[in-house]
Write a structure and sequence with these properties.
By secondary structure, the protein is α/β, with parallel strands linked by helices. The chain has five helices and seven strands, in the order αβββαβαβαββα. It has helices at 3-35, 93-105, 119-128, 143-147, 178-183, and strands spanning 58-61, 66-68, 77-82, 109-114, 136-138, 155-159, 165-170. It is elongated and about 80 Å long.
Length: 192
Amino acid sequence: MNKRKLLQYLLQLTLLVAAFGLVLFFLQWNRTDEQTTWTKDKSALTGLSRGEVVTLPELSRLGGGTVAMGSLREKHLLVGLISTSCSACSKESKFWRSLHEEATRRNVAFYLIALDMEQESVEKFAKAYGFDDLPVLIDRTGRVAKTFEVSNVPQYILLTSGGQVRERWTGLSHTNMDDQRAKEPAQFFSNL
């Protein structure tokens, strides 16, 4: 093989690898965009579905103490399942604040449940992104994640006062729609 053919072969191989890399990049980018939209499409969610009854464990509260989730039976309950490893979750604090305010107004209990086992990492995450004053619980044992069969976060689950799954949403928008969504949290309570 002469030098010219070898260079031509290397150039073709480089272009092929670059094209393959671009295809993978756009596939991943497209998949991430699909996950950033709100969905109530049940085929997009795995785990418990509407109508099933769950029993939630006692969880540690950020800042100290515990909350016996099973004792919240006098109210409906909206939980937001989050994780410190979810970089997109860091953009949701304004939305979580508006959900908390709307839930309080409607007499619905609202908790963010961090699916992380280390309290220190949850505390740092909450403080860094400005939601350390919201009711955040920590699923140190992984029981909540297992109960709801969580495959992605953030995820929001509305439970009736009897522990029945009323509605379940997944996804989020980290576009300029955040401000609009933060103004309209009522969508989560429309089925009460």
